[in-house]
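tool=predict chain=A
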Amino acid sequence: MTKKDQLYEAFGELAYVLAMADGNIQPEELQEVKQILEQHPRGSEIQWSFDYETRKQRPVEEVYQKVIDACQEVGPDPEYPFLIEMLEKVAAIHAGKSADENRVISGFTTDLIERFRRDVEAIE
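tool=predict ok
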């Protein structure tokens, strides 16, 4: 699996984590994910990953840790803004962004930046 493949798999997994932040996935969230991903060149891969996690119903914390590890492995990438935008749109679709959904999005960006910062410090 290439680093890009890992990244897109992680995108689908993080969309699952976000959708599960309030305890269950709303039909509106499923539709929003699908609509957003239809516009992305690798959307079918991201969708597959999201659907896989939805079927498996693995613990959200476990999936989140896998996402952070994969993103650290991949490193900085120009696709991250797409991911954050997708998460923001999905979070807003059902009764506005909840506090739990906001924690997922802000936690992801904070965790990822911190991991990248540690990587840089290790090099120096």
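Helices lie at 3-19, 27-38, 43-56, 60-74, 80-93, 99-123. The mean pLDDT is 92.
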